[in-house]
Each structure stands twice: as structure tokens, then as C-alpha cells.
Write a structure and sequence with these properties.
This protein is globular. The protein is α/β, with parallel strands linked by helices and about 230 residues long. α3 (about 110-135) crosses α4 and α4 (about 175-185) crosses α6 (about 210-215). The chain contains six helices and 13 strands. It has helices at about 45-55, 55-65, 110-135, 175-185, 195-205, 210-215, and strands at about 1-5, 10-20, 25-30, 35-40, 70, 80, 85-90, 95-100, 100-105, 145, 155, 160-165, 225.
Amino acid sequence: MSELSLPGDPEVRVTLRRSARARRLSLRISSLDGRVTLTLPKRVSEREGRAFVLEKMDWIRTHLAKQPEQIIVAPGTRLPVDGDILEVRTGTGRRVLREEGGLRVPGPAPMRRLERYLRELARDRLASASDAYAGRLGQTYTSLTLRDTRSRWGSCSSAGGLMYSWRLILAPTEVLHYVAAHEVAHLEEMNHSRAFWNVVERLYGDYAAPRRWLQAEGNALHRYRFDGQIEND
């Protein structure tokens, strides 16, 4: 894949993707992180693709303006963590320390260290919730993995493997528990039938509010970046 940059400020990078199955040029802007992708049919040249993107430049910028602004996490950032709002603070030593109202993050590469801390915290909270819900069902899962997924908050494989987005640790606690209940429910009902939603309700209770929160606010969890640079990919 190659890229092109749109003229103007701020810079917008567009990824060019070749597809043998595509019948026409198509643009897609990710609702999660603002990634812009142009899909090129097999016989369309990159030159034609670039001309197409330039024609759509105003459309692209209009849609990107509606995206949540990316936040580069740094000392002073107020970050939602595990149900609280915590200020990122400069620390010493080797470990991230949670204190009243904040997180002390030591160097080197402190924000990478903070991300690792958040992943570990997410694993702890999600494993605990998954264990509890699976126990209520009398079911067991085979594995639990964390990823930085863009299209889903969790999944359950036919083999009983659970996968979650680590960014759920940035969501309200009840949302994290709802997602855990949702995925564990698939151990009993591998579908989204009425029977499945009955299992979710049996495990979690009234799930309407956290489900609505994810639909309305979930995308904003992807705006937090821990690499020290703003990018569209």
C-alpha cells in the first residue's frame, strides 16, 4: 500500500489500497480514528486514484472535522481510568503508581509505560469480570486476549476464546462489565438471538444504558494516543 498527502493544514494522509474485487473507486473514513482509505480497482492507476482524492478533498476535510480530536497523552492530561478521572503526572522509579487523583508515570518512554500499565489493568478487570460471569453460567473460556481493536469491543470464538479491547479500561466501569457479560454470554449462545440477549440480561441486568454509552461515546476512547504524535493511521 502507498500513501498520499492532501495539501493544506492540517495534513491529511490517505492510504491507497488495491483490491481485485473492487469495481469502482471508493473512499472510507474510519469513524474510530479518522483513517482515510482509498480503494482502487485492479485496473485503475494510482494517478487516477490521486486525482479522485483531490476532487473529494473538501468532502474528506468536512467529515474529518466531525471526528473527535485526538489527545496526545502527556503529563497534565486528565485521563478516564477504571471509572475515575486521573491526571497523568511525572514519576520516578520503575512502576506506574496510582495516587489520589493521579497516576505517577516514570521514564524512559513514560507514555509507553503508561499504556502497558493500562493494558495490565484492563486484563485484570476483564479477567475478573469474565471469571465471575462464566461461573454464573457454569461455563469456562479457553483464553483471554487483549487487542487495540478498531471495529469491535470484544468477541468470543467458537472455541471459547475471549478477546477484548484494552481501551475498555478507559470506559466507565459498568461499560467494561457489560462488554464482559456480552462476550461471556456467547459461551452459551453463539448468536445475537433473543435467547442470547436474555443471557446477557441474566448476567448483567438492564444493559440498555451501557450499550447506549458505547454507541454514543465509545469512539472517543480511540482518540487517546500514547506514542507522542498525532496520526491518521
